[in-house]
# Entry
Amino acid sequence: MATLTSMMMRYFRARVAVSIAIGAALAAGMSARPALADPPPTPDEYISHVGGDAQVLAPGEFVLDGARQQCGQRPTVIDNTLDDYGAAYPGFLIMNPRLLDRVSKPVKFWIYAHECGHQFRGPDEETADCFAVQRGRRQGWLTAEGLEEVCSFISPSKGDSMHFSGSYRCEYMRKCYADPGVR
Ligand SMILES: [Zn+2]
# Structure
């Protein structure tokens, strides 16, 4: 039976820079809980599964550094127990304010935009990265300097089967950022 954690890996999520120890501890805790059925959960199902103080915010209600974040009509679930900065299921985003509070504004915005990219572009990580940096350039919150902050943020990530290494991702994001055509 799939645990919530393993299902999330099957769906798309950002793997940014999370401690393996924390992730493993959460996975161990979650595996004792009942599994959610396929297909992906609704925001309410997700919240009732993780418990705690997780809550769902309507589209446009999630705020980062004073700025409302919008991802079409997708709601955002706030989950301070998520083992990463952000994640996405088809239909909604999950944000972890406890971790997001620790990073700079462009990095925060990039994480939200990356998860939003999955909503519109699918599970591919490079494509979500490209979506995020081009959105940042277009909306004016991502400068070349900000992109370097994103790069140093993800540089400790180790590549795995789903996620390229941070340096490879950055090389691609720099190309996307410089590309006037929308990908
Ligand atoms: Zn992702």
